[in-house]
Amino acid sequence: MTDPLMLQEARHSPDVIRQQLSKNAGVSRSLAAAIRALKPAYVVTIARGSSDHACTVLKYALETQLSLPVASLGPSVHTLYGTRLDLRGALVIAVSQSGASPDVVENVRAARESGALTVALVNVEDSDLARAAEFVLPLRAGEERAVAATKSYLASLTALLPVTAELSGDEALLRGLHALPAALEVTLALEGQARDLAGRYRFAENLIVLTRGLHYGVAQEAALKLKETSGIHAEAYSAAEFSHGPKRLLAEGLPVLAFTPADQAQAATRAALDALQADGADLRTIGPASGSSLTTPATGHGLTDTVPSALAFYLFAAHLSLARGLNPDQPPLLSKVTKTR
Description:
By secondary structure, the chain is α/β, with parallel strands linked by helices.
């Protein structure tokens, strides 16, 4: 049996990131210079679905590395309610695999007209979104045919990181980026472990996904992919927020899948998960922290650590779908490109 496209495309990720880092070097430097000249007071992101989850990781990157507050723009504020936001002097970042969603494109056009510095992270370089933005950072993921995005999401996590490192002067982040393709190769070798872990959730109907900090956008993406490829009702929470009410769900026997960072959020995440286990939680973990159920390779920086974690989860998710007798490439009612207004 031929492996599903979701798995085949996820396995391309080391080469995708390697090419992206090499081919985007020039535009990354130019964009860093433009941001340095603008000195934006804040950043706005525009995206939907998996791309919006990548923006959550970018939010943490820009806030922790550059002290820039980041807000997610609701596309319908402009496209449905007709409001043109005053984004003069802002840095506006749109993320899209296809670059074809009209509401994302229209918001970028409006932002650029209002005086914002607009940037598109897009896989299809000859797209409406690429033409609408002032700067384009190509994802370099190549054609992605699976409905469930994998390599394009991973490429969205990394595309802005060289710019961030240039502006912050963070040498550890640069080293993490250089180490990333090799770390992804190591992650692919964990596919057997990911398949074994997936078997544990074969009959799950509901699932809680938890983490803290930089991995939160990966947890959001995981919850989406579990819905999309396995029909599991999964929800992502910060491990801190989970204790403010949602923790009640543990009494109903809902299992927990957590992402375990090895950065500054490690101790707080571990303490929260230990408390949940003390309360009887059925818990398994993915991430670079030592002792995780599926331990991913550390890259030397918390931001680049998110990428092997996400790749390991994709291997897990694809095998979970197969174990449930499903085809992750054919989720009911969904198509590759969703155009919203």
